[in-house]
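Sample 1 of the test manifest.
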Amino acid sequence: MASETAAIVVRAHRPAPWRDTRLRGIALQIIFVAVIAAIIGFLAYNTTVNLRRQNIATGFGFLEREAAFGIGESLIPYSPADTYARAFLVGLTNTLYVSAIGIVLATILGTLMGLARLSRNWLVAKLAGVYVETFRNIPLALQLLFWWALLRQVAPGPREAWEPLPGVFVSNRGILFPVPLGQPAHLWMAVAFVIGLALAYVVHRWARQRQAETGWQFPAGWAGLGLALGLPLAVFLAYGAPLELDWPVLRGFNFAGGTAFSPEFGALLIGLVVYTGTFIAEIVRAGILAVSWGQSEAAMALGLRPGQRMRLVVLPQALRVIIPPMTSEYLSLTKNSSLAVIIGYPDLVSIANTTMNQTGQAVEGIAMIMAVYLAISLLISLCMNLYNRAVALVER
Amino acid sequence: MIGISTRAGGLLALALGLSMGLGFPVPATAGPTLDKIKQAGSLSCGVPTGIPGFAQPDSQGKYAGFDVDFCRAISAAIFGEPDKVKYVPLTAQQRFTALQSGEVDILSNNTTWTLQRDTQLGLNFGPVVFYDGQGFMVPKKLGVKTGKDLNGATICVQPGTTTELNLADYFRANKMEFKPVVIEKIDEIYAAFFSGRCDVMTGDATALGAQRVGRASNPDDYVVLAERISKEPLAPVVRHGDDEWHDIVDWVVYATMEAEEKGITQQNVDEMAKSDSPDIKRMLGVTPGMGKALGLDEKWAYNTIKAVGNYGEIFDRHLGLNTPLKIERGYNNLWTKGGLIYAMPIR
């Protein structure tokens, strides 16, 4: 290459090290990193010294101690006799739970609203526009308080709970519904579901290849759906359809049995989904508008139906524009879930706050919160970047 | 910042402040807090964000209440006037960080004195100004008689309090289940309880009674159960390591108690200063010595009593039988009248 010859020429009259831009660049970078490290080290050292002087406990030893406080809702077994580490884990799972469901629902809502805003139906487009402009411009914290107050105030007390369907109760304690009790069949149904998915993928590959070779089409989507749902159903029937439900029953103050969505969880989820959905709607709309009309015209000229046109021509190109900003939305949804503390959903921040307050170890607590959010965010970014690479335009 | 920002933001800011504040060496000389206060020209006092009778802003945004008066008392002892105080409303979760990081000089914040706080949090407690106990408030229509009836209940509780821990202990000890609903802001947690989100509200019994009167649309629909599940000695708090400042807080509080015992009131303090009693002359600075020992003006106690009155007057003004809260003195009566309020001798 040309630069190699250039390098040889430069080496012929080697400049003094401080005149060498390459060396100077490296040296400056080393100095920069060293200064940053020194500042961090200085702060850490002084913090430790001063904490010790003020007799404030330091270190992560507190994680082993008994937490001794209750947590309202938990996906994993927890009691006040467990450790702070366990309580922290409860908070983490609660954060991941609400974020994961929130991301899925926000994507669905946002995509629908983004498409609706592009609709040629005047009413649909305007309604979607009003939705976006309203919820995008109200602070999320206020929205959470609004949804929470709504869920709390509108629903009756547990003794006067509404029962819209048998076994489903709506009260200000949340929405309760029966859940199937654990059966050995469930494991095999899960296995069948995974096998079904794998088969669906194989069918999909085969159908595409056949279409490429012969032009014959095969309804791979329906076949896949049938496999993924049909196989577990077959297993379920083969086991003699064992279904035993854990019904919620009013006992004393509250319902026992079944599973509940608490008003706090509900308000947080609705708030996050509705708020983030507005941004996703705009991203989807922008992505679709970024695909030039000529592409659609070309697709029509080829005789593709509107659905096919969207699925095969417009969306693959729009996704390239949509995915990167979508990653940011997923990240902010996850981080916004920390607003749960306002309405009392026991997320990571809420539990870490309590822990910090009971142990007094705020520096450690904040460090743990930051580390966890950083890890979650990097993980989401990584997944989205991988997906982005998969759908990116292959440049030749 | 604290009033409006979200909790996460507030806490983060506090933690940042903490690491910054602690990030630079603290001067090792004795009594830096008093010097700092004198230099700033005001005392920074951490009070609750809103408990009727204890600390609540009035319609002009001026803080008033039992907790507030102890800050005013200290201000009077230092500056000779009670209003050189900057009030910082702090939630239960924010208060210790705010004190540790130096944002406030003292907490007068319904804080329970416990071993862990005294040691691991690097705090020191002043004299107990209010003896309380944790109780349960329930709607009357539930027909609950004692805490033992509460198995399975949903219970509203503020995080970062001893209350939260006592609650879990009580249910564990009695082998009962409960579901906590935990919210930091006092307004929100009581809104949740009064809208029926929880069956039970728990907290210091006196504060529960105050909120019942102050917030319920119909206070008679609710009852605070007679049972007390814990001891809650509430005391002002200062940072560990500044003994001179700790002494000042101790003795200003004792002065209000001693004044009640000696019959010195806001009204008669000028007359009492002419008294022949050597005790009273020493305390009110007619005979010098006490002020110098504390590093304060000799009229420190006189100014305190003149500004806020004695302990009994402070109590009656904000909590007593002539207020909407109608709290009996009970344990908070003088030791000479069967209570626990006992000042160390000022001599």
